[in-house]
Specification:
about 190 residues, mainly beta, five-stranded antiparallel β-sheet, three-stranded antiparallel β-sheet, 8 strands, globular
C-alpha cells in the first residue's frame, strides 16, 4: 500500500441509468506518496480505538469545469478531491485511505435523475499501465435522490478513464464491472474506504 502513486481523478455525467453516452467533466492528473508510518507495538488481539488514529492529508486538488463546453450551459463549475491516510497506532490494525469527492455546478445544469460519477485511480510507481492492477474508487449519486449515494472500490487492470473499453459505451453500473471489489476474493485492498 505504501509508496509513490500516479493518480487520475475525474467525473462522468450520465443523463439516466440507461445512458451509455456520458459527458466527461475532465480529468486531473496528480501523484502522491504514501509514507509508511511508525507504529506502536500494539496488541495483536485488540483493535485500536478510533480516537487514537492519526490523520494525514495526502492530496487536495481543485480544478475548474468548463460547464459550457462539457454540458452546454453557461456558468462555472469546480471539482475537488481530498485524500487522507488514517493510520492506526497498532501495526495489527488496518489503516484507511479515505477520499472525499466534491463537485459544484450551476443549479440548472443537472436535472433530477442525472447520475454524477466521480472517480480516482491509483497506479503504483513501478507498475506498468495495462499490465499491473490499479486501485480505484468511484462515488456515484443520482441528482434528486440523496439515498442513491454509493461508493465502489476497484482493483484490476481496467482503467476508469473515459477512453477505456470498460467504460466507453457502457451504462454506469456496468463500467469496469470485472474489477469491482465484490468480485475479488484475494483479500487485497480491504483497507480502503
Amino acid at each position: 500500500m505504501f509508496g509513490e502513486y500516479d493518480v487520475i481523478m475525474g467525473t462522468r455525467v450520465y443523463t439516466n441509468s440507461a445512458d451509455t453516452d456520458f459527458a466527461s467533466l475532465g480529468e486531473h492528473v496528480s501523484s502522491y506518496y504514501l509514507d509508511e508510518p511508525e507504529y506502536d507495538s500494539g496488541d495483536e488481539t485488540t483493535e485500536g480505538d478510533y480516537s487514537d488514529y492519526y490523520y494525514f492529508g495526502l492530496d487536495d486538488k481543485t480544478w475548474d469545469i468548463d460547464v459550457e463546453e462539457d454540458l452546454g450551459f453557461e456558468g462555472r463549475g469546480e471539482q475537488r478531491m481530498f485524500t487522507e491516510l488514517i493510520v492506526s497506532p497498532a501495526f495489527s490494525d488496518d489503516d484507511i485511505l479515505r477520499v472525499y469527492m466534491e463537485i459544484e455546478l450551476p443549479e440548472d445544469v443537472l436535472k433530477n435523475g442525472t447520475i454524477v460519477y466521480q472517480y480516482m485511480q491509483l497506479l503504483g510507481e513501478n507498475d506498468m499501465e495495462g499490465q499491473d492492477p490499479y486501485m480505484s474508487v468511484g462515488c456515484q449519486v443520482t441528482v434528486g435522490d440523496v439515498e442513491s449515494r454509493k461508493v465502489e472500490n476497484f482493483y484490476g487492470v481496467d482503467k476508469m478513464d473515459v477512453t477505456d473499453d470498460q467504460v466507453a459505451g457502457k451504462i454506469v453500473s456496468e463500467s469496469s464491472a470485472d474489477d469491482k471489489e465484490k468480485n475479488r476474493n484475494d483479500g487485497s485492498f480491504k483497507n480502503t474506504e
